[in-house]
Amino acid sequence: MSTHEQHRSAATSPDDALVDALAHLSFVVQLELAEVAAAHDLSLTQLRLLGILVDRTPAMAELATRLHLDRSSVTGLVERAEKRDLVRREKRPGDGRGVQVRITADGLRLVDHAKAALSPRVLALSSTLTARQRSTLVALVSTLLGGA
Amino acid sequence: MSTHEQHRSAATSPDDALVDALAHLSFVVQLELAEVAAAHDLSLTQLRLLGILVDRTPAMAELATRLHLDRSSVTGLVERAEKRDLVRREKRPGDGRGVQVRITADGLRLVDHAKAALSPRVLALSSTLTARQRSTLVALVSTLLGGA
DNA sequence: TATTGTTATACTCTATAACTATA
DNA sequence: TATAGTTATAGAGTATAACAATA
Questions:
Q1: What is the pTM of this model?
Q2: Are A144 and B51 an interchain contact pair (Cβ–Cβ within 8 Å)?
Q3: Which of B4, B22, B48 is nearest residue A66 as measured by Cβ atoms?
């Protein structure tokens, strides 16, 4: 029911309870992500962009698909990141129209720091769980996400 | 590790696996939330605003706290919602400075529809889990969130 | 013709700083 | 002085529509 993390509603059915729990959890986790991004002077979208580029050199259109954004939005996103020397646009070999985006050393350093900052925050969230509970949670979420 | 939902990284430790799972899950759930909001011509923030107002009549400052926004941001947010007759600003009795924000019938209808649209989407996400697994997941997430 | 990416434009969202009015 | 809220301003983020270049 709740679309807000501080709205602790009394779920009336098991289904409602699940929807509530996942929505609420997503807000709490996203807040941590946004704070980590902000601490590195990045928006959450910029951080996601860098995260994607860590092990890929995608075309603009592929970035748009992965980020669920319009191609024109990605143009601006990459432009701003490029201005900060976090990414670089390169000509796509073999297709005169295409561009591929590559992360720079600066960008890589930034995303590494952000990732390092994220872990303790997310782990702190789960401090009320035992080690066994945490591993059960990981297993369930992995199944839910279709990841084995 | 992953800051992006489509980045299925091989977590190297149980801690990394937990951070990955929760981050990934949060993106997937937020995508559903954003799509539901968009289907009702709302941003996720506007939907959160309405969600808060369902059972409250808060002051602007309280809204800012709940939404993790600056007061000036809330001014614009409420203004746009008011322009669409989704909320109404009222004078706070007993404090000439204060304002309280109330959801309108239109707003309530909209948020109800959005909530109804969200449930099947989130439930579909968890279709790979058994009923018992879903209830375990709810219990673990509730503990994590400190909600008993 | 279709695809890739950009540009032009217009909004929403957000924060900072300065302001007004009330307490 | 302190608090509640707004305004002015600036910038990021986003989409739609129209465009150029290439395929």
A1: 0.91
A2: no
A3: B4
